[in-house]
């Protein structure tokens, strides 16, 4: 072959290579166009299109450096919130159940105590038995007048002044829901002359509540405990009152005072005091267990003075339910205060329950502030009450109209 011929073939070879390269590049670009979506779009794994809150938290933990401690803390917090909600619901249910059980226990205890009184043969007035057999009605208050065998003159003076008698007393019970009784137990020699005298007096007036209790000055705490336990089982009332037989009482004013506290479940009303604990033997109001109240010279806790005080039904029921374990101190007002000191009780200090005798109660009545009870502090009651209570009643009494026109 000649150089000429070679020269003719060289350009054709070169041009063929260029077209081959061009076609290759074109084919590559065309392939890129058709495969673009597959190359640049990441396939979406099945089930990972949406993330839950739990998965988001876990992914967040991974972004924070795969710190498992943070994840554990979040898990604990989430579980704690759920447990707290469940505990709150459980506590509310338990509190509701406790209240229901408490109410049922008090009703059951009252029924048992009534049966025990019947079985023990404790004397019960005929009118009380009739009331029990015909069904218990609700009363406003039961007033128990603490008295002794030697206090016949005091009782007669009370009957002649602030305590209605006969048909009026029955009307007071039926229309006003107020029951008043002299409260006394038995002598050491049951059936003796003292007991027979009380039985004859009760037959005449029908205004006694006889307790299964042996009378004695040193047994006043036991008598108070027995009185409330007995009264709450005989009568269903809002309040139970204890008053001494040498104190003047305005019944209508007492009722109006008590109804203001009717909505309170555990209320203790009286003239609150905190006197000294007397450790000296032979003195009045000596406390043999003075050492329980701390160092010498200490004072008692707050409690109502013993001349007159009132407690609500729940507290009377509490005494009835726990009468066998309630400790008795030498002074009955201290004992009552001790029984309530550890309970959730509303102490009401009302000074109208401890007014003085005239002119004190007379001035207060003229000023429109009628007293509930009047007595002399120097005598822990009205001095020579059998003779003087009529004068107190005349000058400080609320008047019979106040009682019958009063609404409780």
Your description of this structure?
This protein has 408 residues and is α/β, with parallel strands linked by helices. It has a domain at 139-405: Spore Coat Polysaccharide Biosynthesis Protein SpsA, Chain A, CATH 3.90.550. The protein has helices spanning 3-34, 36-40, 53-63, 68-120, 126-133, 152-159, 167-176, 193-205, 220-234, 251-259, 313-321, 332-340, 360-366, 385-396, 400-405, and strands at 138-146, 178-186, 208-214, 236-244, 248-249, 267-273, 303-312, 346-349, 373-374. The strands form two sheets. It has a seven-stranded mixed β-sheet, with helices on both faces. Strands 5-9 form a two-stranded antiparallel sheet. Pathway: Protein modification; protein glycosylation.
Summary tags:
single chain, 408 residues, Spore Coat Polysaccharide Biosynthesis Protein SpsA, Chain A, 7-stranded mixed beta sheet, 15 helices, disordered N terminus, membrane, transferase, DUF4094
Identify the quaternary structure here.
single chain
Query: Could you name the ranges where pLDDT drops below 50 across 5 or more consecutive residues?
Result: 1-14, 37-49, 117-134
Radius of gyration: 45 Å
Question: What would CATH call the architecture of the domain at 139-405?
Answer: Alpha-Beta Complex
- Let me know the number of strands: 9
Q: Helix-strand pattern, N to C?
A: HHHHHEHHEHEHEEHEEHHEHEHH
